[in-house]
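Risk register update: the risk of archive-format incompatibility is retired. Evidence:
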Amino acid sequence: MGSWPVMVGFTDSKKAFAKLIKDIDCNDWMATDTAMATTHGFVDDSGTNAFIVTYNPDIPHDSLPAIIAHEAWHIVEGIYEYLGEDKAGSEATAYLIQYLVESMYKGLVNGRTA
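Archived output:
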């Protein structure tokens, strides 16, 4: 994911989530039964900051951009926390959000893989 010290993945099923997180301590693929998406953040054994965004496969298509943007913001907050940044520049933040939203949107729309 560029120069940011993170990995981002996403899933849209419990089975895919289970496969993705087999080596980390994270068990709930969604925060609640009514959640449309959930962002899981963790640091792996090598010190890499990682995020897994899980999407409910029943998200209405017209809600997808807003939900992706919402989850992208959680990733940005997690990256800044990991880096020890109180407030990064607005242009850097804008480009990071743009990158995340575009990547996740394309992945979900084009076969649900990134």
